[in-house]
Amino acid sequence: MKISTCSFLVLTCLWFSADAQIPRLLKDINVLSSGVDLYDGVLTEYNGKAYFSANDGISGTELWVTDGSEAGTHVVTDVWTGSGSGFPRGRIVFNGLIYFSAYDPIHGQELWASDGTGAGTYLVKDIYPGTNGSGANNFALYNNRLYFSASDATHGNELWCSDGTDTGTVLLKDLNPGSAFGFCSGFIVHNGKMYFTAKDALHGYELWICDGTEAGTQMVKDIFPGLGDGYSYAQWCEFNNKLFFSANDGVHGFELWETDGTETGTELVIDLYPGPGSGYPSRISVYNNAMYFPASDSSNGNELWMSDGTAGGTSLVKDIRPGTSGSFPSGMTTYNGKLFFRASDDVFGAELWSTDGTGAGTHLVKDIMHGLAPSFPRNLVTYAGQLYFIAVQSQAEGYQLFRYNDSTGISEQVTPPTFLANACTDNDMDQYSLPCVVLNILFYPATYDSLGTEFYKIQSSTIGIDEADNNHVFSIFPDPATSAIIVSFNGGMRNAEAIVIDMEGKEVMRKKFDDNVKLDVHHLSAGMYAVEVITSTESFLKKFVKN
Question: What pTM value is reported for the model?
Answer without folding.
Answer: 0.81
